[in-house]
């Protein structure tokens, strides 16, 4: 129930208002002077302060100023006599939410109170959301104990407090976007917008108008003026995702924006200054683009001020067990189940797999195992087939490449998995499983015995 602190020195008005507000379902504390109101605020939490401006002793405005220091989220509504509206308006400039004039129109007052409460909810929600987002991109949620990742963290930490342009490189799924967000949410710009644009997904003309905006009438269909992402990101960060795919025409304009720190909307004549921190990312070989003439050299140097390279997951196997544990926790929490245990084989298999889809592929595998697997432990059969059978997604390479194992040992692991899989598919029926694999029932029996299945 929302709580209102009501301050009014006229006893009749005080009782009348308190009555009306209680009838509306509010919890009301009614006091007749500012000093008592201050004592009340110190003892209880209120959503709304409804106070007469003219009070004996501390007046309404002074009371507001004091309370703002103690309880800044409280919404203050002042009641003023007809002749003193100007004071009420001045009070609003200091942060008072609204005012009502005497004699009070009850309906009007109730609407104002309701709006004040709604706004408070929104503000609270915003703060909560912001906290959540900031937590999600805080460093604790970016996993990596391996040497290469520790180097990345050091760089991210340093670069966050600057305004320098960052270029994040790495294969698909290595966490480029995650790092871009971490930089933004750990920078001084964190309370302003992080605006993302995927340069690979838009055709040239659309990419241009999305980046720089356009004036009404700039082209057929431009019915109104529209701000581009550069302008929307003013004061914040612009994340240019997949920068390697940006067409040459847009490259020239982007270079100009980065050099001049101004943009020109399409069809516009006025340069608009922008204060934007740029982070770009790509999985492409930009140096090859330079050699082939598809990526401008001047733009490359503009962007590549602070390069951050995210190594592929197969080059930082030490992170795999931590990542598995992290995703088990995340997806167990999401599905409201106690975190599952992870069997040793699962860790072993994951450590040996090539992970061409990098962290994203591992994340999906674990999500699937947590959500779909039965029991309280994640076993190898809960992993996607291509992973536990040791092949890559497109099935080309056998990747049980534990260099310590001999050829025969690796073949055995692969064979065992294939047999196991077939049996599982056929509900343990050996005849059917043998048929599925095109081997004799005798061979099947032999293998089952050999691998203790
Ligand atoms: N170090 C990490 N710790 C925890 N989660 C990670 C880590 N790296 C990546 N992820 C997760 O993996 C998924 C893929 O990451 P992200 O989208 O940042 O990769 P990307 O490099 O931008 O991929 P793409 O090139 O395909 O766009 C995301 O869900 C992200 O949260
Ligand atoms: Mg990405």
Structure overview:
With 453 residues, the protein is an alpha/beta fold. It folds into three domains: 3-132, Response regulator (Rossmann fold, 3-Layer(aba) Sandwich); 142-311, P-loop containing nucleotide triphosphate hydrolases (Rossmann fold); 315-450, Helicase, Ruva Protein, domain 3 (Orthogonal Bundle), CATH 1.10.8.60. It has helices at residues 11-23, 34-43, 60-70, 85-93, 106-136, 147-160, 176-185, 204-212, 229-232, 248-260, 286-292, 297-303, 320-334, 344-352, 358-372, 385-388, 407-425, 430-437, 441-450, and strands at 3-7, 27-31, 48-52, 75-80, 98-101, 166-170, 194-198, 213-214, 226-227, 237-241, 262-264, 271-273, 277-282, 306-310, 341-342, 377-378. Helix 4 (85-93) links the parallel strand 4 (75-80) and strand 5 (98-101). Helix 13 crosses helix 15 (358-372), helix 17 packs across helix 18 and helix 18 crosses helix 19 (441-450). The site of adenosine-5'-triphosphate has 16 residues, from helix 7 and helix 15. Residues 142-144, 170, 172-178, 283, 326, 359-360, 363 line the site of adenosine-5'-triphosphate (ATP).
């Amino acid at each position: 129930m929302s709580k209102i602190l009501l301050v009014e020195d006229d006893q009749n008005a005080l009782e009348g208002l308190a009555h009306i507000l209680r009838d509306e379902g509010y919890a009301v504390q009614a006091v007749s002077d500012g000093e008592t109101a201050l004592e009340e605020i110190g003892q209880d939490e209120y959503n709304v302060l409804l106070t007469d401006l003219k009070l004996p002793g501390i007046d309404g405005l002074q009371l507001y100023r004091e309370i703002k220091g103690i309880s800044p989220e409280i919404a203050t509504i002042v009641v003023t006599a007809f002749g003193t509206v100007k004071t009420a308006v001045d009070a609003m400039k200091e942060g008072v939410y609204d005012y009502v004039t005497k004699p009070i129109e009850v309906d009007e007052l109730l609407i104002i109170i309701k709006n004040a409460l709604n706004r408070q909810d929104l503000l609270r929600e915003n703060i909560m959301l912001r906290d959540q987002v900031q937590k999600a991109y805080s460093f604790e949620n970016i996993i990596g104990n391996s040497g290469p990742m520790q180097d990345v963290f050091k760089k991210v930490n340093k670069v966050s407090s600057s305004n320098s342009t960052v270029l994040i490189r790495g294969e698909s799924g290595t966490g480029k976007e995650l790092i871009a967000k971490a930089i933004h949410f750990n920078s001084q710009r964190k309370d302003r917008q992080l605006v993302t644009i995927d340069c690979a997904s838009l055709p040239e003309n659309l990419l241009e108008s999305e980046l720089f905006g356009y004036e009404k009438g700039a082209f057929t269909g431009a019915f109104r003026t529209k701000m581009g992402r550069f302008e929307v990101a003013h004061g914040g960060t612009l994340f240019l995702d997949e920068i390697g795919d940006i067409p040459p025409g847009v490259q020239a304009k982007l270079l100009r924006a980065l050099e001049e720190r101004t943009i020109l909307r399409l069809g516009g004549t006025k340069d608009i200054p922008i204060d934007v921190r740029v982070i770009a990312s790509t999985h492409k070989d930009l140096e090859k683009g330079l050699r082939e003439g598809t990526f401008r050299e001047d733009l490359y140097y503009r962007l590549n001020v602070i390069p951050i390279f995210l190594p592929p997951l197969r080059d930082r196997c030490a992170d795999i067990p931590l990542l598995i544990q992290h995703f088990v926790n995340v997806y167990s929490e999401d599905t409201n189940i106690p975190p599952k245990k992870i069997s040793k084989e699962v860790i072993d298999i994951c450590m040996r797999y090539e992970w061409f889809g990098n962290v994203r592929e591992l994340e999906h595998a674990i999500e699937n195992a947590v959500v779909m697997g039965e029991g309280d432990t994640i076993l190898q059969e809960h992993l996607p087939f291509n992973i536990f059978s040791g092949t890559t997604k497109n099935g080309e390479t056998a990747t049980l490449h534990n260099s310590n194992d001999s050829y025969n040992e690796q073949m055995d692991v692969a064979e065992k998995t294939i047999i196991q899989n077939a049996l599982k598919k056929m509900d343990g029926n050996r005849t059917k499983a043998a048929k599925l694999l095109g081997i004799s029932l005798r061979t099947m029996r032999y293998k089952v015995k050999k691998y203790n299945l």
